[in-house]
Amino acid sequence: MLRTLIIDDSPRSRSTLRRLLSAHAKIEIVGEAGNVADARDRLLTRIEYDLVLLDVQLIGGSGFDLVPHIASTAQIIFVTAFEEHAVLAFEVNALDYILKPVTPERLAAALQRIEARPAAPIDRPPPVATDALFVPTINGSRFIALPDVTVITAEQNYTRIDLADGSRHLAQRTMKEWEELLPPDTFARIHRQFIINLRRVTGVTHDIIGRPQVYLSGYPTPLRPSRRQWADVRDLIPHV
User: Fold this and answer.
1) How far apart are CA 151 and CA 233, in angstroms?
2) Is 98:107 a contact under the CB 8 Å cutoff?
3) DSSP letters for 80-123
4) CA 76, CA 64: separation in Å to the nearest integer?
5) What is d(CA 95, CA 111) in angstroms, rounded to the nearest whole number?
């Protein structure tokens, strides 16, 4: 049996996939999720699964945010209405990329590809400093290049992303989610309110009682880290 998770924020789409999958005797649906938070919980529980049917745009984030949490032995088939993300899907070693509306023939062809791929751990590298991430913002989802990010700031139930060109975007993502997603060799949390791009640090000064202030390229004011978090971060900045 091919144990399958369906992750899609549209109940109608999930229903369609269930109906189409019912025609395949070897498919067993072991779970569903309609948003990023629920999907992450299912992916990280002890549910055994071999295949994830994954939408790109989800409530609370993107299907690409979930890729690092998917078991390395499971296959991913993206099922989405957005054709422009296909290249990125294959860069994370997705098995296939199906555009909605899904036809029985197209789904069957994708499932047949599973038999042709060896059952071995799949290399899905985590995000690196040069990547672009798919970010849900209050003005619509968009890709943001990590090298352009200067500071991420907690803003109540949102986070604000300050880019090198001076623009700002309010993201529907928590600081904890950013910490789990961003490459730790490039981004660090220096305060409960701030995550900084270590590669954009231009200098550090200390006030009269020795408290540090961090200056970043493209950001107008210095940031003051907390004492506890600064102890963990300072050695990651080469020129400090």
Assistant:
1) 15
2) yes
3) ES-GGGHHHHHHTT-SEEEESSPPHHHHHHHHHHHHHS-SS---
4) 11
5) 9
Per-residue confidence (pLDDT) for residue 187, from 0 to 100:
94
> Could you give the angle at the alpha carbon of 18 between the alpha carbons of 48 and 25, nearest 5°?
70
In angstroms, the CA 201 to CA 150 distance is: 9
What CA–CA distance (Å, rounded) separates 33 from 42?
8
Beta partners for 134?
143
Question: 62 and 136 in contact (C-beta within 8 Å)?
Answer: yes
The Cα 42–Cα 71 span in angstroms is 11
Q: Encoding tokens for residue 151?
A: 């500071």
Q: What pLDDT sits at residue 2?
A: 93
Phi, psi torsion values for 112, nearest 5 degrees: -65, -25
Residues in the chain: 240
Q: Could you state, in chain order, the average pLDDT of each consecutive group of 10 residues for the chain (240 residues)?
A: 95 97 96 92 86 92 86 91 83 89 95 73 64 77 86 93 93 86 90 95 89 92 91 76
Give Cα separations from 24 to 43, 69, 114, 132, 173 (angstroms): 23, 26, 13, 36, 37
d(CA 135, CA 171): 7
- Cβ-proximal residues to 3 (8 Å cutoff; 6+ apart), any chain: 28, 30, 48, 49, 50, 51
Task: Tell me what pLDDT residue 157 has.
Answer: 82
Residue 224 burial (10 A CB sphere; 0-12, 13-18, 19+): middle
Contact status, residue 137 vs residue 173, Cβ threshold 8 Å:
no
